[in-house]
Structures are given as structure tokens and as C-alpha cells.
Design a protein that fits this description.
Length: about 200
């Protein structure tokens, strides 16, 4: 413990304050879990070109940054490993869009994408756990906080605004088998989506 005001003690307090300031907004927005992020298996032999196109959010772990309805994302390939990402939602009767970039961070494991909606923020994990490319996809994102706990997001996506209940149940089972807690997963609102991307 720092009882005297020394440079090392002051630096330690500054680092702690910065870490705490970073953690508090995450805790307020999401439910943290103890321990590091799970390491789910991802889609083997992932084909980025086949994954491109329009995906609708079917179900999700609640996310502070997604408050609207009719949420969808359109992926467009720019280069072999750079993706244009346009997400949209209807919030308070207005269509809101945000554009970002996606990258394959490791060509040996192309199902582990990184996505950022800001030039100043690093890429966040966007891992394709499973997809058949034509009907559904399971996506997982997780951030460790000092390896003490983690904050995660999970989405079930569809090429259409609805998926059969059996498909959603199977998706949740795949998440659970990979150590991902989907007990808080909620269906997304995809009705009356008269405004589109």
C-alpha cells in the first residue's frame, strides 16, 4: 500500500484511476462475468466473401449501444481483408446508421474479425462462431478487463428478419456449448420495419 507520496505510488494511483474510469461505463452498460473471456470455437474454413451482404439481428445479449428496432448490418468487401460495415436501427421513428470498418486480424483464422466504428478506438472482437452463409450466423464479442472479469456480446443473425424457433434454439445451444452465457439473450424487434438500409 502507498503510505508515502512517491512517484511510483502516484503513478500506480493514476493507472488505477484510468482503469477504473474505463471499467465503470462498461459495468453500467453490460453484465460482467468473472474470469477471462471464453475462447469459443469459430467457423472452420470461414469464407469471408460468402458472409458479405445484409444480416438482420434476430436475438442478442442486451447491448447499451443498441436501443432501437429493425437492427441490421450490411457487410461489403473492400479488399481481401478489409470490410465496410454499415449498421442501422430505427430509434424514435428515425432511421439511424453508423459506418465502420472490419478487418481479418489473423489470416490463419479468418472467422476472427475485428470491427470498429471509430478511427480512435481499437478493433473489437467480432468472431463468427457459426454460419451457413445463407440463413443464419452466430457472432460473439468479448473484452477482458484485467483478466479478472469480462464483458461480452452475442448475436444471432439471419438473412431474413425472422428465423424458425428451432434455428434460434440450436444457436443458443451452440453458444452454451462454447461457454457463453446466453441466459439473458432477448429477441430483437424486427416487426413493422418500413424503413430499411
Amino acid at each position: 500500500m502507498c503510505l508515502q507520496v512517491t512517484a511510483a505510488c502516484l503513478n500506480m494511483k493514476v493507472v488505477f484511476a484510468v482503469v477504473l474510469a474505463s471499467i465503470v461505463p462498461l459495468i453500467g452498460a453490460q453484465v460482467p462475468h468473472w474470469g477471462p473471456c471464453p475462447e469459443p470455437e469459430v467457423q472452420p474454413a470461414f469464407n469471408l466473401k460468402q458472409f458479405m451482404g445484409r444480416w438482420f439481428e434476430i436475438a442478442k445479449l442486451p447491448a447499451q449501444f443498441e436501443k432501437g428496432r429493425c437492427i441490421e448490418t450490411n457487410f461489403t468487401l473492400k479488399t481481401d481483408k478489409l470490410i465496410r460495415v454499415v449498421s442501422s436501427e430505427i430509434l424514435k421513428a428515425q432511421l439511424r446508421k453508423i459506418e465502420g470498418a472490419g478487418v481479418i486480424e489473423d489470416m490463419k483464422n479468418p472467422a476472427k474479425l475485428g470491427i470498429s466504428y471509430s478511427y480512435v478506438l481499437p478493433y473489437s472482437p467480432y468472431w463468427i462462431v457459426s454460419t451457413d452463409y445463407v440463413n443464419s450466423a452466430l457472432v460473439y464479442s468479448c473484452t477482458d478487463i484485467l483478466r479478472l472479469f469480462h464483458v461480452d456480446f452475442a448475436w444471432i443473425l439471419g438473412r431474413t428478419r425472422t428465423l424458425p424457433e428451432a434455428t434460434v434454439a440450436k444457436a443458443m445451444e451452440i453458444f452454451a456449448k462454447n461457454g457463453i452465457d446466453v441466459s439473458r439473450m432477448i429477441p430483437s424487434k424486427q416487426k413493422d420495419c418500413d424503413k430499411t438500409v
